């Protein structure tokens, strides 16, 4: 082969290689520019992987944008805060029960408040609100109720109260601070102090559909303090809507539809903490933290065997004695400067003991009168100065004065009877 032909072939081969290389490079560039798959943030949210959700949205890798992404990011941030502050609670049992039969599976006994279906109360409320909640919470004396109804501002469901009078139940009064604010409230439960209120609500501050909140009445401002979420494990991405504590038996219950079908709910029985203890969250063991937060494995909460054993014993005793027991209220009986009793059993005189018992009942009566008067005064000060409110306020002022005088007389009489017996 001549030299020119060899040179020609070499030229053609070089040209072919030169043309192929850019095409190969272009193919590589096209391959590297393939879009990354978007992250399913809704799925991550259900797994409580809140930090991953926030990172995906902030980095533009989420499978949603705009308002939807903002809403999911807000939920994830709230969830991350709750997860890191999960309360360490001992759960004794978790049972799935029919929704229609729920109230029969909440063994509230003794001196704590109870829930009753709203259906049996509609005829007693006057005037009847346009929209009502699911239940009525009634105190042990059965002379005061709390319930949810369309709030006074027409912007959601607020909490209301009513008192039993000789002529029937009083006109419902809104609880100050528990109206509007973008929340739909329901299922109130009031502790024995008459000031601490738990309730369920959707809307502002809620992680899932409905969450559990707690607030307390502040006498100095004559309103309820800003409610706080109970946090995890009591709140979840599902609906959590009943919370109650029996202080006498040191047991608590809350209800959720997590892991349930449409017509059933899960009832958790737990031991209330005297002091709040937080689960130690760790990136290396986030699965364990999530299990505590969601209560997906109740046994994880039962590390303190003594607390579990004692709690189950109290629960068994409670269920065996449906009537429950009254909580003994600590009171003092001043007989003289150097003689003070702390129990009715210390009285030597039967007559003095009977009078002291009547004095105790009068103290309870006075407390309820003062509570109702305070509510009426706040209603009056807020501008609702109807004739029936003015009339009731006058009646309460007279009743309080009368009861205080009667109490002083009883205290004087039991002192005299006891001292005569023992001197």
Sequence-ordered SSE layout with sheet pairings:
Elements: H1 3-32, H2 41-46, H3 50-58, H4 66-84, E1 90-98, E2 114-117, E3 132-138, E4 144-150, E5 157-165, E6 168-169, E7 173-174, E8 183-190, E9 196-203, E10 211-218, E11 223-224, E12 228-229, E13 240-246, E14 251-256, E15 264-271, H5 286-294, H6 305-320, E16 333-336, E17 339-341, H7 350-381, H8 387-422
Antiparallel strand pairs: 1-15, 2-3, 3-4, 4-5, 5-6, 5-7, 8-9, 9-10, 10-11, 10-12, 13-14, 14-15, 16-17
Taking the alpha carbons of the first and last residues, their distance comes to 145 Å
Order of helices and strands: HHHHEEEEEEEEEEEEEEEHHEEHH
Derived from helix and strand composition plus strand pairing, the structural class reads alpha+beta
Q: What's the total count of β strands?
A: 17
Amount of beta strand: 15-25%
Model regions low in confidence, pLDDT < 50 over at least 5 residues: 324-328
The biggest sheet, with number of strands, parallel, antiparallel or mixed sense and barrel status, is:
6 strands, antiparallel
pLDDT averaged residue by residue: 84
The shape, in one word, is globular
Q: Percent helix among the residues?
A: 25-40%
Total count of helical runs of at least 4 residues: 8
CA-based gyration radius: 32 Å
């Amino acid at each position: 082969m001549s030299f020119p032909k060899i040179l020609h072939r070499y030229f053609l081969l070089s040209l072919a290689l030169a043309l192929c290389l850019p095409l190969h490079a272009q193919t590589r560039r096209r391959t590297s520019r393939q879009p990354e798959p978007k992250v399913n943030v809704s799925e991550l949210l259900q797994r409580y992987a809140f930090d991953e959700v926030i990172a995906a949205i902030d980095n533009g890798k989420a499978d949603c944008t705009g308002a939807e992404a903002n809403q999911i990011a807000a939920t994830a941030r709230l969830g991350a805060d709750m997860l890191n502050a999960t309360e360490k609670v001992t759960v004794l049992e978790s049972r799935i029960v029919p929704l229609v039969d729920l109230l029969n599976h909440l063994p509230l006994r003794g001196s704590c408040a109870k829930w009753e279906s709203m259906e049996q109360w509609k005829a007693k409320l006057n005037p009847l609100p346009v929209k009502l909640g699911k239940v009525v919470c009634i105190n042990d004396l059965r002379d005061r109720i709390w319930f949810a109804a369309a709030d006074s501002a027409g912007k959601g469901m607020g909490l209301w109260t009513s008192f039993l009078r000789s002529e029937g139940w009083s006109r419902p009064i809104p609880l100050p601070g528990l109206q509007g604010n973008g929340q739909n409230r329901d299922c109130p439960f009031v502790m024995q102090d008459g000031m601490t209120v738990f309730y369920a609500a959707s809307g502002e501050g809620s992680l899932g559909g409905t969450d559990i909140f707690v607030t307390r009445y502040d006498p100095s401002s004559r309103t309820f303090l800003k409610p706080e979420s109970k946090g995890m494990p009591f709140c979840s991405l599902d609906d959590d809507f009943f919370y109650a504590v029996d202080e006498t038996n040191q047991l608590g219950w809350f209800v959720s539809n997590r892991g349930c079908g449409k017509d059933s709910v899960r009832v958790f029985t737990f031991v209330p903490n005297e002091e709040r203890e937080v689960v130690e969250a760790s990136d290396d063991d986030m699965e364990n933290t999530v299990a505590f937060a969601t209560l997906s494995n109740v046994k994880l909460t039962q590390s303190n065997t003594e607390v579990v054993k004692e709690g189950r014993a109290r629960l068994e005793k409670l269920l065996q004695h449906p009537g429950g027991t009254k909580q003994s209220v600590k009171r003092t009986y001043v007989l003289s400067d150097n003689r003070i009793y702390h129990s009715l059993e210390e009285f030597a005189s039967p007559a003095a003991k009977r009078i002291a018992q009547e004095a105790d009942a009068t103290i309870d009566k006075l407390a309820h009168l003062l509570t109702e008067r305070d509510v009426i005064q706040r209603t009056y000060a807020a501008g609702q100065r109807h004739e029936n409110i003015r009339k009731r306020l006058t009646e309460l002022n007279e009743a309080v004065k009368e009861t205080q005088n009667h109490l002083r007389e009883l205290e004087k009489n039991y002192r005299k009877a006891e001292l005569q017996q023992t001197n």
